């Protein structure tokens, strides 16, 4: 499709019955640096999408110019991948449609339905903060009913955290979330990556951290790994449901089997002398805490996951724990998600 759009063709604009004869896309760069952009002659097509789309585009990319800096290109690709995933999961991503974030009053600004604000949206809340570097590792914020995630995309590299820098970033994000959604904290993140192997290598790398208080699982309580594929899109649909955790637990376990409160062992249900733990949410921070309980030979465990998570869990937890998988469509149907 991209190759076809690089050729000169006729494009009809129905809003004013004009026919453009132009290329739609221009591609540049090689391999991982290869990127695409709209040609200058095709920008009028943005008016067909939304009345504010063209104005937003020109403010973001003055004179339709783009940097050749590889770091910025890679970052744009990370942001773009997350936005594409969110769009396919039915999450609003268009910055010219979403209400603008602010830092003046505590009020509900964000939509009541799932919405993704890329980092550019909150970097430019005020000019004084536009040049801050504290958000450079965060690609955006994903709001859903009664909750919010900080969003990172590590692509095909291991996520290495910058300790105090990430802790400071969380504090700044908290102020934005409090002022625009009335939430008390940012406790969870979505970590996008190419494959489960990236999640495994990230966990192994975190074990090497010399300062435990700056490990990623200490900065954020929950870290949900989202693969950059259809499985990740379906997982996003679950993680953006209102009260998704309670609904998911209700689907998996009868009320009398579920554990209330917190104990020394991280698990979700107990029955017939066996502890049950769900990894359906892809929470690798919680998985670290669960692995610590496996050192006790006196306890019996069973882990529930999706089929594509199973090998990752075997590699990380070992073969001593029982791992059972359940198909994604079964869970989506039980949760009432129909667009799959």
What does this molecule look like?
The mean pLDDT is 87. With 340 residues, this protein is an alpha/beta fold. The chain is built from 13 helices and 13 strands. It folds into three domains: 1-66, no CATH class; 67-242, no CATH class; 248-334, no CATH class. The strands form four sheets. Strands 5-6-7-8-9 form a five-stranded mixed sheet, sandwiched between helices.
Labels describing this entry:
alpha/beta, 13 helices, elongated, 3 domains, four-stranded mixed sheet, 340 residues, single chain
Short description:
The protein is α/β, with parallel strands linked by helices. The protein folds into three domains: 66 residues, no CATH class; 176 residues, no CATH class; 87 residues, no CATH class.
Low-pLDDT runs of 5+ residues are none
The percent range for helix content is 25-40%
Looking at the chains present, what oligomeric state does this protein adopt? single chain
Q: Give the beta-strand count.
A: 13
Q: How large is the share of residues in beta strands?
A: 15-25%
N→C terminal distance: 24 Å
Main sheet record: 5 strands, mixed
Count of separate DSSP helical elements: 13
Secondary-structure map:
Blueprint: H1 2-5, E1 9-13, E2 18-22, E3 25-28, E4 35-38, H2 46-49, H3 53-60, H4 70-88, E5 115-118, H5 119-123, E6 140-144, E7 147-153, H6 164-181, E8 188-193, H7 196-206, H8 216-219, E9 222-227, H9 230-239, H10 244-252, E10 269-271, E11 274-278, H11 284-293, E12 301-305, H12 310-317, E13 322-325, H13 328-334
Parallel strand pairs: 7-8, 8-9, 11-12, 12-13
Antiparallel strand pairs: 1-2, 3-4, 5-6, 6-7, 10-11
């Amino acid at each position: 499709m991209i190759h076809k759009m690089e050729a000169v063709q006729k494009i009809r604009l129905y809003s004013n019955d004009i026919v453009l004869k132009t290329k739609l896309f221009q591609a540049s760069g090689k391999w991982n640096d290869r990127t695409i952009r709209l040609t200058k002659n095709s920008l009028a097509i943005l008016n067909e999408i939304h009345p504010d789309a063209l104005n937003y585009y020109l403010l973001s990319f003055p004179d339709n110019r783009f940097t050749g800096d590889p770091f910025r290109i890679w970052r744009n690709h990370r942001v773009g991948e997350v936005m594409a995933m969110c769009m396919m999961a039915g999450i609003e991503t268009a910055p010219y449609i979403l209400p603008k974030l602010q830092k003046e009053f505590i009020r509900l600004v964000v939509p009541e339905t799932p919405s993704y604000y890329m980092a550019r949206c909150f970097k430019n809340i005020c000019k004084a903060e536009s040049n801050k570097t504290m958000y450079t590792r965060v690609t955006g914020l994903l709001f859903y009913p009664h909750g919010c995630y900080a969003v990172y995309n590590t692509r095909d590299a291991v996520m290495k955290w910058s300790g105090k820098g990430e802790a400071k970033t969380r504090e700044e994000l908290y102020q934005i979330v409090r002022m625009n959604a009335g939430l008390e904290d940012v406790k969870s993140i979505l970590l996008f990556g190419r494959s489960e192997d990236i999640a495994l290598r990230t966990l192994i790398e975190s074990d090497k951290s010399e300062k435990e208080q700056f490990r990623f699982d200490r900065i954020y309580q929950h870290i949900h790994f989202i693969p950059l594929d259809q499985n990740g899109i379906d997982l996003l649909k679950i993680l953006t449901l209102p009260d998704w955790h309670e609904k998911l637990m209700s689907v998996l376990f009868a009320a009398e089997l579920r554990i209330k409160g917190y104990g020394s062992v991280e698990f979700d249900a107990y029955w017939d002398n066996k502890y049950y733990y769900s990894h359906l949410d892809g929470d690798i921070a919680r998985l670290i805490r669960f692995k610590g309980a496996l050192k006790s030979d006196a306890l019996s465990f069973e882990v529930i996951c999706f089929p594509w998570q199973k090998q990752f869990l075997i590699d990380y937890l070992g073969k001593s724990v029982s791992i059972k998988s359940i198909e994604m469509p079964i869970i989506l149907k039980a949760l009432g998600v129909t667009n799959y």
